[in-house]
Amino acid sequence: MASSSSPPCSNTSRLLVTILVILSLASDTNVTVLASSCKRFNSIISFGDSMADTGNLLHLSSSNTPPHFALPPYGETYFHTPTGRCSNGRLIIDFLAQYLEIPLVPPYIGSKNKRRSANNFWSGVNFAVAGATAMNKKSFQQKGVHIMVKNISLETQLSWFKELLPSLCQTDSDCQKLYKRSVVLVGEIGGNDYNHALLAGISKDVVNTFAPSVVGQIAAAVTELVELGARSIVVPGNLPIGCSAAYLTHFMSNSTKQDYDPKTGCLIWLNKFAKYHNKMLQTELHRIQELHPHANIIYADYFNAARPLFLNPKKYGFSNGALRACCGGNGPYHQNSSVECGFSPSTVCENPSLNVNWDGLHLTEAAYEFIFKRLFKGRLTVPPFKTLCTVS
Known about the structure:
globular; 6-stranded mixed β-sheet; alpha/beta; two-stranded antiparallel sheet
């Protein structure tokens, strides 16, 4: 999901960044709730956007003008301090790491100045960057979209990985061992390609035409990773973006009653578009799987994993509902693009675990945990992730 630029904040940010590097690289031992019998994997290699970024954009940003998620109340629930994650606590990648009983995956940028060796990144490395897109800058320019914020494309993230690879494995045999024990996450990615365009005022009919290029870039990245040797690649689809507080707020003035799903209050046309993207992505992944039967190409159905949260949030303990942001500004969805969470005069709800939406664009830790369980401990990955744990 998208990340916006931010105005300057206090001079304490340099100290904050130092603390965050330590925290983001620290091992986590509180895994009893999600303890796993999946011993095949002990490494995660991640690409994506703010749904997976564990600190890269924070370290790419100037210490004088850090992003708003470098400030409280981000990180308050689990880490008790901001970590560069776009939530109040853990993300799906963190729950996966804990499920596999490995340390939380360090951000590449926060760690790249350290001595590079297999030991530095034994449990994996995270290249995901908040605001990242599947398409590169040139592709956007050709489509008439000019991105004003820092953007790191999937292509760039792959180049970082290839730059780091010689320090992870020196021989073909070593690399085969690395890939065999690693889960490679490619996404969620692509959501920002649509976010940047839609929030910039590009019509939905024009944005519809972006999907083949977006999916094509994701497919190209998956193919390149398979050709490099990756064995198990998880590729998430898009969330029900019509339920995003940011989109509900942005399109509120131009929407009629017929535009909203009576069961959820979400924008119908945006969720249809997410399904369109997801169907195209699944078709491409199936094509790649047929070309590379030795690899496991796993589709993660984020849309249906999250859907129950919007159909009946109170049933799952989200008594404050699914559409109103916990942290934000005024308005019916407690979301205002001019009042970002972390900056004054934004306000935050008392108990984020009762909310699905965190800051308008991103979800709470509790919502991410719900989605994770339905994906990796349930049957909303195709094939089911659990079945890979026993595959040699």
